[in-house]
Design brief:
The chain has about 130 residues and is an all-beta fold. The chain has no helices and eight strands. The chain has a domain at about 5-10 and about 50-125: Protein of unknown function DUF3599 (Thrombin, subunit H). Strands 1-2-5-8-7-6 form a six-stranded antiparallel beta barrel.
Length: about 130
């Protein structure tokens, strides 16, 4: 960790079930999207890809109020910017819809990933508990 990247994160990816059918018929294949695991050892159905990745987590936009009626209404779905140095993760290692878990236990869904010369800029939304 450093002054520029004081936080640590993990990168998770939701496991999917792939279709293994020899037919080319549209609509006659099995489900191939995300599935929640039923095993106790993997309750979230996620694969942990990377751990102890240094980063900087910064507030990006405020989000929206739930009903917008009162100034004190709580906001929902604020976006955050996670900056990861290029020395910590290689290009193409983070995808949209990956899950980021920070050192405080917060979970973020990757909305957009952008690779720059300096590393990743991830636009994320903190998941609500």
């Amino acid at each position: 960790m450093s002054t520029l990247y004081p936080r640590l994160i993990e990168v998770h990816r939701v496991k999917t079930s792939a279709v293994s059918s020899g037919t080319q018929n549209v609509g006659l294949t099995t489900y191939s999207g995300a599935e929640q695991s039923t095993t106790a050892s993997d309750a979230d159905g996620e694969a942990v890809l990377f751990t102890n990745i240094p980063c900087s987590i910064q507030a990006d936009s405020l989000g929206r109020t739930r009903n917008g009626m009162l100034p004190t209404d709580i906001t929902t779905k604020p976006t955050w910017l996670i900056i990861i140095p290029s020395s910590a993760l290689p290009q193409y290692s983070v995808r949209d819809r990956d899950i980021i878990v920070d050192d405080e236990g917060y979970r973020y869904g990757v909305a957009q990933n952008a690779w720059t010369v300096l590393g990743y800029n991830l636009s994320v939304i903190r998941e609500e508990v």
